[in-house]
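quick one, 510 residues, struct below
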Amino acid sequence: MNETTQTASLENYTLAQWREVAERAKPRIETRLFIDGAYCDAAGGGRFQNINPATGEVLAEMARGTEADIDRAVAAALKAYRSGAWSRMAPRDRMEVLYRYADLIEANAESLAVLETLDMGKPIADVIAEDIPAVVTTIRFMAECIDKVEGAVTNTDAGSVHMVLREPLGVVGAITPWNYPMLMAAWKVAPALAAGNTVVLKPAEQSPSNAARLAELFLEAGGPPGVFNVVNGMGEDAGRALALHNDVAKISFTGSTEVGKLIMQYAGQSNMKRVGLECGGKSPQIMMGDLPDLDAAVEAAIDGIFANMGEVCSAGSRLLVERPIYDAFVERFVAEGSNAYRPGDPLDPATNMGPLVDRGAQQRVLSMIEAGRNEGARLHFGGDAPESLADGAFVNPTLFSDVRNDMSIARQEIFGPVASVIPFEGADEGLAIANDTMYGLAAGIWTRDINTAFKLIKNIEAGVVWVNAYEDGDMTQPFGGYKQSGHARDKCMDSFKSYTQTKSAWIRLE
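---
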């Protein structure tokens, strides 16, 4: 079945069909670790529960990897790297393995999609239409980079030749979050593998079900054993051990700023490994009074904060609206946004908002909403959990207006479907409010004035800026932030290069 037919077929599944697929998939969840090309139990025999956040059901008892398992996985990855079976494979051959890998992910889209939904509550329609295609695109893009990266021969005196070579780093440790389990794994694993490295992946403990399957499919595509390893476990144990390991050449992490700072400390305490961090965000959208289309801006604002339950690092959670259009913007957001996203069964193709990842996340978001109320923000809709879905970790989409930038809901990353509308007077004040945060991941600018747009682009402290759009882009677009949002750049050719190092070779001729 080709890609178009496969995708169309899955998009036509009903709720009853997806429930049947889910029931078949649950007993087949692979609970073991994947090390050196084979499944294995955790050395200490520990387990942890993988829970469906939509129902509270225990999906599986997963093997709980510890430092001993990280040691095994890193040793396998180092052995595979030094063997050259992958790192010195001919570039076109390595490309072909990754192309086959992408094809296998497409072919297994049904089982991968349903586990993604059961794991972290992402609506099945989103997984099919967005996540899996993005995973496949990422792998294919990075495969295409393999023979496009060149070294250099510099201009030297006639008696010398100087070459600058680009080589893989060695063993890469990847620690991924739960909000986009497969896609964030692909953003790290695909460029690392494409560059010739070997990988040890530690997925988030809240969403581990697909990680080992991704490694198994890589092996099925022709990847050598030991090149892609997976160790499930807790961040404070397995994640810490991976970041401290002296045989890991780079650690790539997506998650909270707090943990990102620990990762940097671990790198310094061990072998000064390279670190790539993509951390939190509190991204502003600056709505100027002359924006070209109020309806389009409101629609982008709604999707920018409520999509994926607001569990998005770059979510446009701070909506900065210039005074002349403030009332109209809020009125339109209430009219369009109050029913745009409705929590429901994430296996239902009609659902566009699932639960938060677990009860802890639900309680954290509800407590932030309560803080917004107590600090004087005006609640327009939401602010609670849907009574009809009490078994799951759901939160209704929520809108506050009359928010000040010193309020908790404007300062802290809520990581839930909570929008804050903040008024401002003029571009300079809007810019000052936008930059008044420790984060700097993304920003949106809405204006028809090209001078205002360029002024804001040049001065806003964010790694990704959209103008008259939000969350648009393709694989050529670097994704990453400023300040305490981290410094890594995912997607794009720069991501590929970040998993390589240069070597200078100076040759004196006779």
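The mean pLDDT is 97.
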